[in-house]
Amino acid sequence: MRVLFALLAVVALTAAEVFFKEEFNDASWEKRWIQSKNKDDYGEFKLSHGKFYGDSDADKGIQTSQDAKFYSRAAKFPKKFSNEGKTLVIQFSVKHEQNIDCGGGYVKVMASDADLADFNGETPYNIMFGPDICGPGTKKVHVIFNYKGKNLLIKKDIRCKDDEYTHVYTLIVNPDNTYEVLIDNEKAESGSLEADWDFLPPKTIKDPDAKKPEDWDDREYIDDPEDSKPADFDKPEHIADPDAKKPEDWDDEMDGEWEPPMIDNPEYKGEWKPKQIKNPEYKGKWVHPEIDNPEYTPDDKLYAYKDFGAIGFDLWQVKSGTIFDNVIVTDSVEEAKAFAEETWGANKDAEKKMKEKKDEEDRKKAEEEEKKRKDEEDSKKKGDEDEEEADDEDKEEAHDEL
User: Phi and psi (nearest 5°) for 337?
Assistant: First the structure.
């Protein structure tokens, strides 16, 4: 039985189609990824494994290298394809080793006719997916679909990772109009395209001809008609201080007529309100009846695009240092998960250990520098004290001589 399952898994992977795959193993990536010419001051991507990593070769990716810059590079697929009738998986890894404060980390997947030499923020795309961080308020995963010319944002909030380690982001779009977002091969969100985006108008709307009946009483509680305000209730909130006395030096002509200061009235009981009782005429909350929306037309192909043919990074970063790696676009969830485990999964523990080791080294170095600085300050302070003491002795000797 185990052999059968293993064979089925092999068959599934064999049948999978990989439309695009990029591991950024060497400098040849620059030939595949076209630098946009839309601006003349784009930031430069550099091939790097960063300051900490699991494998010095496998963990190389393209890293943003200049602060406060736009970045824009894109690559064509070997051939265009449509995801109609099949699963679509978009996956890549992101490492914000600079402890990013504001910047994008997403990809845009476009049609095959996209002009990559002019790739910019206005370039049409089919799907935009990936993390976006800007201050403490924005730490989310974008999932944006273009539908009939409009870019539709997901209505759910998917929080992205904001640490300095490598993380894998996976978007799965299924032919039954459902989706799933994975982070590090674990589900972060899932649901229905129709429910979680505004692809279509609502199925039902409030009946425009329906109105709440005039005699409909939706007050659950009413004032008790038999309750009345007590006679001693109407006391002012503030009264003149009975213990206050007019100052002896008060001049009415100069200072005006003297009035005692006001104090809180100890007998004040607040604003009186009659007690509430159940309304005998209460009919419940009136619910506006709904009808089928005449503008609603179901679409069982919300997920489908006729043409996929390019992918690119078009983003802004305040503080550079983000590394992108291991991009894959496929029709197989299993293929994408296996690729993530072969790359990120195989090296994440070593990356963490190297990061922790470096952090410890940096901590010790900082402590040594702080100790050296303090020793120098103490030494200088002692030298100043010795010099001052010597001056005092000289003065005393001079005084004795006199």
Answer: -65, -40
* 153 Cα distance to chain centroid: 13
168, 161 Cβ separation under 8 angstroms: no
Condensed to tens digits (0 to 9), the pLDDT of residues 97-113 reads 998 999 999 999 999 99
Token code pair at residue 304: 């489908």
The reported pTM is: 0.77
pLDDT digits (tens, 9 = 90+) for 145-185: 999 999 999 999 999 999 999 999 999 999 999 999 999 99
Annotated binding-site ranges: 106, 108, 125, 132, 314
Q: Which domains does the chain have, with CATH numbers?
A: 16-198+308-358 (2.60.120.200)
Reported as a single tens digit per residue, the pLDDT across 26-74 is 999 999 999 999 999 999 999 999 999 999 999 999 999 999 999 999 9
Annotated binding site for an alpha-D-glucoside: 106, 108, 125, 132, 314
Q: Which sign does the torsion angle of CA 161, 166, 169, 170 carry? A: negative
Query: CB-based burial of residue 100 (10 Å sphere; 0-12 exposed, 13-18 middle, 19+ buried)?
Result: buried
* Bridge partner list, 173: 88, 179
Please give the pLDDT value at position 385.
72
How far apart are alpha carbons 348 and 336 in whole angstroms? Answer: 17
